[in-house]
Structure formats: C-alpha cells, structure tokens
Amino acid sequence: MHMAAESVDPGGEVFVAPVWTFDELYRREYAGIVRLLVVLTGRRDVAEELTQDAFLVVHRRWATVSTYERPDAFVRRIATNRAVSVARRKSTEARLMLRLRREPVQEMPWTTSTCEIWDAIRALPARQAQVAALVLIEDRSIQDAAEILDCGQETVKTHLRRARAGLTSKIGATSHA
Amino acid sequence: MPDLDDLLNHASDELATMPVPDRPFVPRPRRVGPALVVVALLAGAGGLTAVVRSQSTSDHVLVANTPITTATSTVQTSNDSAATAVTEPPVTATPQTSVTPASTTPVPTTSDPLPFTQPQQVISGATGGLGWTLDVSTEEGSIRCLRFTAEATSRTLCLTPHSDELAGMSFVVRTPHLMAAIGQALPSEIKGPITEARSTVTPVTGLTTDGTMFMAAVTLATDPIVRLPSGEECDYAGILDAIEAAGAAEGYQPTHLLNVAIDHCRGDIAAGSSRAAEPSAAQTAFRIFTRSGTTWLASAADHMNSCLDTESGTPPCVKLGYSKPAATGTPATADLWVALPNTGLSERILPLVAAMGDEVLVVGGASGWDRVATGNLRDGRVLNTTGTAWQPIPDAPVALTTGLPSAWTGTDLFLIAATGEFLSFTPSSKTWTTLPRMRGNPGIGTAMAWIGGELYAMDYVGQTFTYSPTQKTWLSLESPTTIQADHSALKSVVRGSNWILSGGSTLAIFDTIASVWLPVPNIPSDSMVVAIGQDVLLTTVDFQHPAPTSRLNDANQFVPTGDTVDFLWGGNSATYLWVVDGHWVGDSGPAMTNGRAIQYRSSDTWISTGMPTTSGVDVPVQTASGQLITTDGVRASRLKGVEGPGPFAH
Fold it and tell me: Partner of A113 at 20 to 30 A CA spacing, among A141, B224, B466, B588?
C-alpha cells in the first residue's frame, strides 16, 4: 500500500507522489517489464534476466531512486536500455560475423501476425523500437514514454512516426495514423 | 492488406495474456563461490604481467600500484605501502524493504585518499556469484582509481597515471565462476546520480577468450579517425572496415580479427530532446578481439547519437584505440602443443574441421567475415593417421563452414551444409557424394547421430528423421513431445542404442531399437539441460545463483553431483559456453578459448593447455585415438595432453 507525500509543484498545484517501497515497485512492475522486454528481445529468459538486472541496479541505488518521482519509469528506462543494447549486440554479431547459430528460444504461443509484429519492432532502430514497445504495445502516452526514455515528447513523436512507418513497411500493412 | 493498428492491438492483447511466473527478487547471491580473484595489471610492450592472488572470501580485490611502463614492475598487495587499498562500507543503498536479507557484516572503514565524489564511469556486473560495480575515476587523462564493490566489501584501487607510451592498459579480473554480464557499461542508465561524465579516457570492459574479464582504458586520438556516413542505422560494416584498416596499418590482417562486439551503438540523447544540451553519457564501445591476443578498442562517444538521429546534421565519428599485445591474455601455463604441417590451404575463417576416425578433415570456411554464415570455400585437406601430412581432396559440392551437424559412421562422414544440402565424404576414396536432402529444416541447429547403422537427425523445431544409407531415403519419425519446438541449440548424446537430445529446459530420449521415445524425468521450468561431452547435465541456469548440478544416469534419472555449472554467453566464439567449477567448456565437448583447450570428458578428466601454434579459437576435434587436433585452416597443432582430476565426483 502506498503512502503519499504531498508537495507543491511550481504551478502551485498540490502534487501527490506515491512513496514507493522497493518490493512494491518490484511486485507491481516486474511482470509488465518482462512483457515489455519480451517484445524487445524476443526471448522470455532474456527478458526475465534483464528485468532482474534492472531491478538489481535500482535496488543498489534505492536510497536515491526512491526519491524519484517515478521510480517505475526509471526502472523501465534501465530495462529498455538494456534490452536494446543486448538485442543490438546480438544482431550485430550475427550479421557481421561468426557462425550462423540459432539460439535457444523459449517457445511463445504467439500467432503468426504477432510474431511478425515482434520481429518488425525488433528490427527497428533501437530508440524507435523502445518507443514502439512503450506506446504502440504498452499503450503508454507520449508523455509517459518521454519520461521513461528521458527525452522530449517531440523526440518520442518523431521516433513514433518513424517506427510506424517502419512497421508498416516491414510487415506490409496499411496505417491510418 | 492488414491494418497496422489492428495487428498492434492483437499483439498487445496476446502479450497481456502471456503468463509471467513470479520470480523473487534476490538482491544478494545465495552462495558465494571461492573467492579467487586475480587482479593483474598487464603492461603491453614489455609483456609485463603482475598478478596477485587471493583465496580469502573477504579479500576480493587486491591492489596493484605500478607504473605500467616499468619493465620490472612489482606487485603490491593491500598491505604494501606502495598500494592503496581502502575498505569501506558498500556504496549500495539498503532498500526500504528488503525482499531477501542482504549481508550486513560491517566492514571497517579507513580513509579514502581519492574519494569517489564524481565517478566518471560506473560499470557493473556479476562474477563468481558476486554482484559488483566498478566506479572509475579519471585524472588527467588516465584512469586514476577503481572502486570495486562486492558484497559487503568495498575496495579502492588506485593507480599511477600511465605513460603516454602505452595506448591502453588493462585490468584482468579472474574468478572461478565467471558469469558476468560483461561490457554492460551503465552510464546512461544511472546518469541521474552521475553529474559528470566527461573524460578523454573511455573505460571499456570485455570478456577475453581465456575466461577473464578485462577493463581497459583507451586514450583516444584527439581527432576522429573514422567518420561514418550519416544515417538512421549505424554503419557497422563501415566501422569494421575502418577498424580493419587501422589494424592493417599496425600489421594485422583481417583474418586476425576474431570478434567484434558493438555495445549500444545508439544515441542515448537524441537531438532535439530536452536533454540534448547535456553531455552525452552514452559511450559506444567496440571491442575487437584478435587472434594474436590483441584487443582493439574503439569508442565513439561524441556524436554517436547521430547514428539514430541525423537531425543534428553531424556525422558520427569513431575514435580508435587499441591495447597492446598480451594486454588481455594470460600467460600460457605450458607449451603443450606440437605444431603440425601447414595444410597448404589459403587463409580462411572458420573452416569445417571434423575427425574421421584417426584422420582429420578440414574443408571450406569463409574468405571474409561477411561470408561466415554459410562459408564460401569448398577446398579442403585430410590429415593422415600419423599426423604428418595433409592430403588434398576434391572440392566439396557446396561451401561448408564450421559448426555444421555431422556424424561419422566409421567409413563415411555425413554432414549437412548450412544451406541444407546433405553430403557424405568417404576418406578411403576421397570422394564427396550429394545425398537426398533431409526434410524439415536441415542446417545449422540440426542434431545428428549415427546409431546402429542408421542416421538420426532432428531439426531445430523438433522434427525427427532417420536416414538409411542402403535405401538412401529419409523416413519421418514421430517427433518427441518432451522437447520444445524451436530449440535450435540441440545437442545429442549417444548411449548404447539410446539417442539423448537436450535443448533448453527440455530433454528427449529415443530408444532406437524399440523406436520409441522414452519417458524422461521431470525438469523444473527454471532448469536447463546441457550435454557436455558424453554427459547430460541438469542445472539451474541462474545468472546470479549457480546451483548444484545433476547428471543423467544410465537409468535416465538425474542424480545430483554437488557441482555447479554456470552459464554465460558471449566470449569470442559467440556461442554458449559453460563454466563447470570455474572451467570453461564447450557445449559439445572440447572447447578452446583463446588457444587454451579445455575439455570435460565423461572419464572425469580435464585438459587445460597453453597456446597452440595456431593461436586460434577453433574448436578442436578429437580423433579416435584421443588426439586433440586444432587448425585454423592453414596452421595446425596437436595437443600433447595433460590430464587431471575432473570436477565431478561419481
């Protein structure tokens, strides 16, 4: 159960920020972040691992992170950054050199169209993939995604526009947005 | 044409229903492995190596305070006046609510001569069951101090500034259980607490081929060496070309390049973002491991965000640095390799090497890194049984490369090319035969075994077939229900008439006489099965917590061994490597890491050697008489062999 701390924002309105405890944060966000990272990595085991790693980082700095207004956004930022980093490294290594060796992938019960969506998102440039996962899949607002990714809303919009174009092209779909 | 939003909504709905099992958060490892940590300060040109070892679980880090250009540098321990070791409480904060109690053993605090008020880089990982962080402070262009925090112990390592004569310096941290997420520099993820992240020195971490971790500091050139073309995607090929060109200027050939790992080639701060004016904390590190033991390091820290966002109009640049030879290597323990005659083939990358009784086949490979997926070469040689000469053979019908499924019948070698062609090679007549293609998905990832005069094969989605050499036909077999589809890391072991396949957390056992799939023991969902040599091991592959391992016995039951198997990915082979009680092993028998052959045999013997003359990382093959042969396609070596007790107690 959250406690609440009141403060007054520069606009003069009372802002009620939740006071998180670490285990609350973990329990509330773990599953969602794993799902988010499944989209970005394609593998549940990697997603779980990266999620644990992200929480480990937060845990180590909890004294600081707990003072943040959005610890949940912070842990998501860490997790998604890690996800695209791993994905980028793996895809790069596979593309550039070494052996073509398929890696064990945990079976996912996705339909074909969903698999295509995941593949297309992962094929996007890293930042676009993050935005696509957050906005198009998790249905987060532009503002929320900007906060999570620690960038401006216009930047998110730009990435989103490009991501949609990329997805449309990659999977041969139409887009009305 | 489907509507994108419909597809996205459908995908989101599916994702929302994906079950995510609860997994407790464990902030501290449950088990602390033997703390053997070696910090070696390696100087480059002089080949100087300073090594300090500790066996104490509380003394994780030792200190070297040595000018790395001094030819007769000495090693200082934490009690030495020339060293600086500071023990202090961990910097990590205790959470408000701890799910699992963390170690709270107080550690005496002494003064820190160089407090880390503004760490330049923080790198974290886990080694030996310990989570750790390295805070790197820089001063006047050199790495000044490192703070190593593990468990309740925090140590500070301070170094004298290195000379300009060296382009880089490395620290090698070795642990018995190395399972680190290496190279995970975290500045972008923790930039909240870090307000200063500017430096001309870029610490880079990496995983060396001999199982050590290194961190190197590279003083970069003032001017960019390479400018990449603008574009949404980083031009990795361009980067590689540039690095190769720079390497060639130093006398290295492209074939010497072993691996390139590119870490987050992305802009963390896109142009136009609200934080664009802040210093970019994103560091992009390129690590290029070479066969000669040199690690090339490159960094692009200034404008790399342009890789993703060209709105700034500034092309990204890459600055290169490199560490000197031996900076990442470990001195060979012994020269146990005997040079064999050269094959007479042209320089190549990743040829197929296979044992055929006491003969060894080397064939195919790639002429460049862009061809390694399937290989583009077809010529080969066979090493005779005495190991004294390589005999030419006809070109293979198709290009071949390393890692292909193969099975030796005693007279013929069956193999499946990366492109799916099914071939056999008969050494007695030195002939290649193209055979009927296997159905399903033949290629890399197919498991293959020769049992009782029949060839058995399973593709990566679990479709199973048998091939009769006399009928020259493939027949479908019932696919097992106990092995998951899309398990491409299949490994198979033959025990008597049983064919045992493992992949991920699944196992299947086929009785070839009864032609039935046998019941298999239950495997916990958080466990994995891996075949190492002739053993099938069950282990909990937990990044943080290596667990005791069980081994499949002849009754097809897993019996605890009391040992642990750790797991990591990466390294130079870009394949999964397994760490059994601190030893790296291949996932299918003999393995080599940076020329150090490490093998686990079912007879409980280990081989750990020095460098072969090839200095390669090619997977060695073992002949029928037990000879371990390695070749990079041109050079070849044979291992004399030193055996010792294995880690498993029967």
Answer: A141
Answer for the pair B286, B241: CB distance below 8 angstroms, yes or no.
no
Q: Which of residues 73-92 of A touch B (CB under 8 A)?
A: 74, 77-78, 81-82, 84-85, 88-89, 92
What DSSP designation does B589 have? B
Task: Nearest chain B residue to A96 by CA: give it.
Answer: B370
3-state secondary structure B175-239: CCCCCCCCCCECCCCCCCCCCCCCCCEEEEEEECCCCCEEEEEEECCCCCCEECCCCCCCCHHHH
pLDDT at A107: 52
Closest chain B residue to the Cα of A56, Cα to Cα:
B27
The pLDDT, as a whole number, for residue B425 is 97
Interatomic CA distance for residues B217 and B12, integer angstroms? 44
Separation CA B171–CA B554 (nearest Å): 45
Supply the ipTM of this predicted assembly.
Answer: 0.79
Q: B131-145, B362-376, B597-611 — which one is most confidently predicted on average?
A: B362-376
Asked if B272's CB is within 8 angstroms of A155's CB, the reply is: yes
Most confident of A59-63, B167-171, B385-389, B565-569: B385-389
Strand pairing partners for B42?
B49, B170
- Report the 10 Å Cβ neighbour count for B81: 7
Residue type, B511: D
Pair type for strands B636-639 and B628-631? antiparallel
Distance in angstroms (rounded) separating the CA atoms of residues B565 and B588: 14
pLDDT in tens, B382-398: 998 888 899 999 999 99
Separation CA A136–CA A130 (nearest Å): 10
Contact B503 A53 (CB under 8 A): no
Complete edge-to-edge strand list for the sheet that includes strand B498-503: B491-495, B498-503, B506-511, B516-518
Which stretch of DSSP H or E encloses residue B170? strand B168-174
How many whole angstroms from its chain centre is CA B628? 21
- Is this structure's pTM higher than 0.95? no
What is the signed CA dihedral for B513, B412, B399, B245, rounded to 10 degrees? 100
Output DSSP code: residue B306: G
- The predicted pLDDT at position B25 comes to 67
Going by the DSSP 8-state scheme, the letter that residue A136 receives in this structure is: I
Residue A162 main-chain phi, psi, to 5 deg: -70, -40
Identify the DSSP state of B253.
-
